[in-house]
Amino acid sequence: MKKLLIALLTAISFIPAMSQVYNTSHDLPFQAGERIDYTVFYNVIGLYVNAGSASFTTSRTMYNDQDVFHVVGEGKTNARYDWIFKVRDRYETFFHATTMKPVKFIRNIHEGGYKKQEEVIFDHQSRKAHTKKGNYDIPTQVQDVVSSMYFARNINYDLYKPGDKIPFSMFLDDEVYNIYIKYEGKETVKTKYGKFRAIKLKPLLLKGNVFKGGEQMTVWVTDDENRIPVRIESPISVGSIKVDLKKHENLKYPLTAMAE
Prior knowledge:
This is ATP-dependent exonuclease. By secondary structure, the protein is mostly beta strands.
């Protein structure tokens, strides 16, 4: 259960990627009040079971006199599995409403008997990230694991051809990672909750306790102005996961990617 929820939050945060084609002159594909909910299915013996859930909510506020979006991502095991391994994880990001650069990141996780709290303050003027362990150099367009999802929803995938790789940087666990996502083209994907015309992506995963690394994960995002993830599939260290969009509220644009 612990690995499953870590996989879920990691998967969703890797969905699209940053690139130089990001354009601050156009309207953002999300707004304050947006909420997206996911169901996580886990497969270890050939049968997917409903094992967990995740949600992402977006609001707008002020932080240090800056106009920012505040996104909260939460993941948890279903209550009936709490007696085996209880997970209640909460991730938060505050990113600038215009530049979309993160200014603050918070991680508060409770996994079985393990608890961890982490806070990162981003100083883009000095290009430093400040944590309780020290100060770290960061590149100009670095993102955290949650802000990357929202920043990357601005990417115009029509500018790419299948096989193209889009590089980006992410600050995680006191390190900067330079990774990429590969654009695979467009197709219709059938999920637990409906069919969608989608953009197919393969992010480069970091090797760790959950993922084996490489391009084994596949992600589908809506081929409309919202660019929200609707399906994620990936093998993990034991079994595999499938994550489906369950419901959404207050999308900025109509969800026109629904297929018949």
